[in-house]
Every structure is written in C-alpha cells, then in structure tokens.
Amino acid sequence: MKKEIIDITNRIIERSKPTRSAYLNRIEAAKSETVHRANLACGNLAHGFAACGKEDKAILRGVNHSDIAIVSAYNEMLSAHQPYETYPVIIKEAVKETGGIAQFAGGVPAMCDGVTQGQDGMDLSLMSRDVIAMSTAVALSHNMFDGAVMLGICDKIVPGLLIASMSFGHLPIVFIPAGPMPSGIPNKEKARVRQQYAKGEIGKDKLLEAESASYHAPGTCTFFGTANSNQLVVEFMGLHLPGASFVQPNTVLRKELTKAASRQVTRITQQSGNYMPIGRMVDERSIVNAIVALLATGGSTNLIMHIIAFAKAAGIIINFHDFHDLSEVVPLLTRIYPNGHADVNHFQEAGGMALLFKELIDAGLIHEDVETICGRGLSRYTQKPTLEDGKLVWVDIPKVSGDPEVIATFEKPFSKHGGLLTLKGNIGTSVIKTSSMPVDDVVIKAPAIVFEDQHEIDAAFKAGELNKDFVAVVRFQGPKARGMPELHKLTPPLGVLQANGHKVALVTDGRMSGASGRVPAAIHLCPEALDGGIISKINTGDIIELNCKTGELNLLVDEAELSQRQCAQFQKNNHHLGMGRELFGAMRRNLSTAETGACSLFDDE
C-alpha cells in the first residue's frame, strides 16, 4: 500500500484510540450468546410476534434461527425509493429459505432534496439525517432482532441509517440498494437548458420539459450526486454485495441481488457461527477506503460531513484535514457528471465498481484486507454480478476500461489530485471541490457581495447587478442558523456569469453537495456566521482572496478594523417558521460544526 495512506490511517487509529476502544467494549456488552429475543420476558416476546402467522410464531419461539429486522425508507415520491415497495416480501421469502424470519421493524422518513431545492423545506434536509438515525434506533430498540437489512439510497437517508447502524454495532447489518433510473437526456443538455432559463431565453414550460426528461423513472437520479456517492461509499465499506450499487431497478438481476443480500445477513449472525457485527466490520481502514473511493470519483461534498458523523458513531474521529491529505495522494479516476459528461449508467457500462475496485487495489490506495458482509478481503468486489441460466453468479471483468473517458487508470488519471481541498485563512476553515472546475489551481481576488439568502443572488442576477468579477458571500446558512440547506439555486446564475468571462466564486457556511458545478465554492465554512465567525463581519466591497494554489481563504481587511466591526444579526424569524421548521429548534441549536459532522446526536458536542 501507499505509505501516505498507511500513515493517514495510523494517524486516525491513534487519534481514535480512546473513543474506539470504548465503542468496541459497548457493542461487545450488547451482543447475545443466543438469539436476542431470548432475553425478553414472555409478555415482551408475545407482543413481538403477536401479529405473525402460526408457522412464524413457532420459529420465533425457538432459539435456533435469526429474526432479521427490515428498516425501510420507502415512499412513492422519491424515485430512488419507490422500488422498495416490493422489497419486504422478497426479503421475507429469502430469509425464510434460510430457516429464519424477517419482520418489518420500521419505516424512516425520506425527503427528496431535488424537490426541496430552493424551497423552505430544504432547511430540514440535513436535520432529517439525525431524525432518520433516531427513527432507525426506535425500530431496532425492541431487542427482537439478530441482524438487519437497511433499505435506503438518497442524500441524508443512507448516512442516517449508517449512524443508527453503528449505534447498534453489535448487529450484523446489510444495506440493499435499488439502483439508478435509465439514462434520460444528457446531463450537459440539462445544464444548458437551466442556464438558458436563468438568462430568460426560454420559459418555464421548456425547462420543465427538460427536467422531466432527465428525472423520468424509478431509480436514483443518474448524475453523481449524494445518492450515488452514498452507494459508492457503502459498497467500498463492504456493506453491499459486490457490484450491487448500480444495477437498475425492476430487473431480474436486481431482484436476485436483493434475495442474495437477504440471505447473506443470516450467514453472519451470532447463530450462524460466522458472527460479524457491523461495528467490528467497519473500522478505521474501512472509513479510509470510503474516503479514498469518494475522492477517486469526485463524489459529493455532503459525504464529508456524513462520513465524519457515522465514523464518530463508531468511535472513529475524522476531520477535514484527513480528507485534504488523502486527496493529495488519491488521483481522480472517473469522469461522471458534474465532473464529466457521463452518468452512472455509463460508468457501469465502462466497468463500474468492479473496475474501480481493481484500479484502487492494484494502486495500493485502499486497504484490501478489511472485513465485509461477504468475508475478509475486497478482492471479491473486483467481480461483477450477472445471471447464468437464471442463477446469480459473479464473473471477472475486462481488465481495461470500456470507456477511457469515463474510467481512467492510476497510471493515466484525469487528475493527480482527488479534487478536494481544505482552505484556511482568517475567514475560517472550509472545503472546496475542484474536480468539476475547469482548472484546479484557481486564484480569485475580487470584491465581496454579501447575501443572506440564495434567492437574493437570483434577484440581483436578474436585475443585471452582477455583471462583474466578485465573490458571493452567502452567510447564515450554517447548521445552527438554518440547518445548512443546499444552495443549488446559485449554480445557474453564477455559471452564466462565469461563462460570460467574469471571475466569480462563492464563500458560504452552507453547502452545495454532489451537484457542485464549475464555480469555485468554499463551502462548509467554520466557524459559521451564527457562532460569530468572521463571515458575519464581511461587508460588500471587502476584498476576498480564494487561493487553491496555497490553500488559503482570506479577507483582506486590516485586523484592527475587523476587531471594531460588529457581527451581523441573523433574522431567524424569516427562516425558522413554516414548513415544519418551528419543530426543529432544539435540534438546530444543538447541531455541531460542519467539521464535526453537523450532528445533534452525540452527548459531547
């Protein structure tokens, strides 16, 4: 393995020793030497199987077979989650073939960031992750279960399920995806139409027509946003079956993978003799593998916060610096929109996950000898699933990319850098995704224009006030201020200005996610404005320098003058009322910083 990867991993292990040790002791104490339901009183157990049929009750009375929990984020509004409607029946039948029982333990909420972008409901998006984690904990709290399967794909759903899974780290847990929708109109065309609409060249009817041709069927959106980045990360942590991430919904192969995953969880329960709980399986090396895979593919910046949060739930301490240092040694090996023209279906056709695993293993960039739901070692993930005579098998893949413009080699990467930088300076600490930018050594020095809502930028753009070089400062978007909504409404107007030759950049304590475009965006800024960060003292006209060459982000204002300025005041009533936001005050106030996962669930925050 690359020495730099080993050194960073050892740094994380050393940093995490006290918390990881305490965590492993806790999950060891939580495990049962027999089925967990054997610890229940007769009244408890009777309630637990009261609704079951006679045959299932007979199995659950015994202590020889596992009871598997199904936790699902199914709903009909999320295209990615709609296929989950039929999964519980498939899972129950598959588990029953092994002699066990599967029970639907609970549903968790699942909101779609695509629906809430630019809307008031987006203020709840990040906080929904913690709600999902707590909802999953409620589902698993009955102590009936010896293992679990998690049905979730999109933005905050998978991270929420992962946080809860780590909390129940004594259980074996398998994640089951549903796959991407078929490709619609090219992503480049979709972006072009959005910019046309932003410039007023087409009407809403043409925009809706293009959007509907892009998001058009069951399955995940096909660009490489947070949903598909989630699937990549989960598979690299060994929590999917090999090659399961990007098989399309409603296919025979997809159904067979779901059945196989359901059977697999019963093979790693305490009763199987091959016990592998998720809390032991996912260790510091698994987390490093997840980060390396994210960087090698130019994945969603949302995963920075999410990996930090679910790693911490397993006693593993990660920070921005770890991402930055790994990015220095991990090359960019894929071009998937918004980092290129291809979508995840094209990535799958070019060799997909199996080829990516092979490249990263051969290059010594990931820890191969980790535990997975299929046993020890990631080499089996270099094969792809297929059907032979109706049976699910894994086969070798071609050793070269089916499309070198989509998947590159370690010897000839698209970039020698993983495309993620930490920027530091007197404004604070932020991250910037460079993998989708025209060049990754951008330096912008320009006057600030201060906004406190993304809609203000759209209005200024339409009024013709932004035809110049500037740095857009969008503040009071941080975790404690507004729950850290995504700011995608900024992408089309800033993209138009950039295309027109203006040097523009964004500085914000909010976030942009996997759909971050070509505009340099210093996001996740800490400390946030509501905590008195320097961003709260920036005035329109102040000069800001964003320097990707040196990794600096500075406000070029005399320190003496800055010390005399008052922090701007947040108008919370405009953003804390309506669309349910008033119900989240306690959670919002307790969210940690972006660099510590923007999480409300840990007592020490």
UniProtKB/TrEMBL annotation:
EC number(s) on file: 4.2.1.12
Domain Dihydroxy-acid/6-phosphogluconate dehydratase N-terminal: 68-379
Dihydroxy-acid/6-phosphogluconate dehydratase C-terminal domain sequence ranges: 405-598
SUPFAM superfamilies: IlvD/EDD N-terminal domain-like, LeuD/IlvD-like
Keyword entries, A-Z: 4Fe-4S, Carbohydrate metabolism, Gluconate utilization, Iron, Iron-sulfur, Lyase, Metal-binding
Gene Ontology molecular function terms on file: phosphogluconate dehydratase activity
Pathway: Carbohydrate metabolism; Entner-Doudoroff pathway
Matches recorded under Pfam families: ILV_EDD_C, ILVD_EDD_N
InterPro entries noted in UniProt: 6-phosphgluc_deHydtase, Dihydro-acid_dehy_C, DiOHA_6PGluconate_deHydtase_CS, ILV_EDD_C, ILV_EDD_N, IlvD/EDD_N
UniProt cofactor(s): [4Fe-4S] cluster
Annotated cofactor note: Binds 1 [4Fe-4S] cluster.
Residues binding [4Fe-4S] cluster: 154, 221
Reaction(s) catalysed (UniProt annotation): 6-phospho-D-gluconate = 2-dehydro-3-deoxy-6-phospho-D-gluconate + H2O
Matching Gene3D superfamilies: IlvD/EDD C-terminal domain-like (3.50.30.80)
Similarity annotation: Belongs to the IlvD/Edd family.
Function: Catalyzes the dehydration of 6-phospho-D-gluconate to 2-dehydro-3-deoxy-6-phospho-D-gluconate.
HAMAP family: Edd
Name by which UniProt lists this protein: Phosphogluconate dehydratase
Natural source organism: Thalassotalea castellviae
